[in-house]
C-alpha cells in the first residue's frame, strides 16, 4: 500500500511519516509569507489536524504534497482572515472608546479576485508553458507523467514550470494572489 492509502486507512505510523516529510516545509513556507512564527506554527498544526480528520477524503489521483499544501493554503487564508477580523474588531472598540470615527482599513483583494488574478496571469503564459503548468499545479501530475503525456523530457517540464513561476511572480502584484500562487505551486 502507498502512503496515501495507509493514511486513509488510519495508520498512525504512515501519518507520522507524512508529518515528518512536510511539517518543516510548511512551517518555513508560511513563515516566509507571514513573517510570523506563531502563525506558521498554528497553520502547520491545524493543517495536520485537518489532514487527519479528513484522511478518508484523500485522493489517490493527486500527489500527497499537492493535497497537504492545499489544506495548508486554506488554513492560512482562514487564519489571515481571522486576524483581519480581530484587527477590525479591535479598531472598532478603540474608535468607540475615543469617540472618533473609525477609518476603515483599505479592502484587500478577495479570495476570488486573487484567484482570478492568478488565472489571468496564467493565460498570458506561452501555450505550451501554460499547459505544463496547469497539468502540474492544477491536475497534480508529476514531472515524469507530464513528460510522458507531452513526449518531452522531465528536465524540460521542470524548466518550463520554473519559467512559468518566474513569469507569474513578475506579473502578479497583489500580495494575497502571490501567497495563493505559492500554495498552488
From TrEMBL:
Stretches assigned to the RNA polymerase sigma-70 region domain: 19-84
GO molecular function: DNA binding; sigma factor activity
Every RNA polymerase sigma factor 70 region 4 type domain range: 117-168
Domain of life: Bacteria
The protein's name: RNA polymerase sigma-70 factor, Bacteroides expansion family 1
Residue ranges of coiled coil: none
GO biological process: DNA-templated transcription initiation
Stated family: Belongs to the sigma-70 factor family. ECF subfamily.
Keyword terms of this UniProt record: Sigma factor, Transcription, Transcription regulation
Cross-referenced InterPro entries: RNA_pol_sigma-70-like (IPR039425), RNA_pol_sigma-70_dom (IPR014284), RNA_pol_sigma70_bacteroid (IPR014327), RNA_pol_sigma70_r2 (IPR007627), RNA_pol_sigma70_r4_t2 (IPR013249), RNA_pol_sigma_r2 (IPR013325), RNA_pol_sigma_r3/r4-like (IPR013324), WH-like_DNA-bd_sf (IPR036388)
Upper taxonomic lineage: Bacteria, Pseudomonadati, Bacteroidota, Sphingobacteriia, Sphingobacteriales
